[in-house]
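ok trying again, last paste got cut off:
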Amino acid sequence: MRIKVIALTTLALSAAMPAVAADLTNNEPAPPAAQEAYSAYDWSGFYIGAQGGYNFNQATVLGSDQDIDSGSAGIHAGYNFQSGNIVYGIENDFNYNFEDNKNANLEWDASGRARVGYALDRTLFFATAGVAAAGGKVDAAGIGKKDDILIGWTAGGGIEHAFTDHILVRGEYRYSDFGNKDFGDGIGDFGATQHKVLFGASYKF
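nice, full thing came through this time. structure:
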């Protein structure tokens, strides 16, 4: 009798083991889903700021090439959109140039540009390109003064960092070719190019 009971018990346990094993397998936690990398800081929105730096300008005027380097100070404003780590938007800037050249000057320069960059949280690496303009001025002995607007293109890039949710700082380099403009008899074509190095700060709303 005892042997029969043991045999029946063993048979019952054997039948139950596959169900227990199945329950244990089904209760195993699922592996965590892979998470995509993203920028925790939100770069999207409107911003406005100020900047300053130095221009390495070269002009072709009165039949010769002239270096008309200068300091620069100005303002900028723009709007960013963000999709994952990609940040893109538009920006305009205007700069007054501090030059000390008696014959030729670029009194100011301005641009309207597109920007696109890659954000690593609060740090943004960006490229920029667009339309550029500058105010050219010539003061030639025996001819007089002449000023006009040159229009060309600009391209460059830089790094921007958000120290707080609203305060951004940047370093930027741009190359601009303002093209040529006929300044009339006695002066001829005025052409100018520019290497601009800028540092600035912005407030993001």
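cool. The chain is about 10% helix and 65% strand. The radius of gyration is 33 Å.
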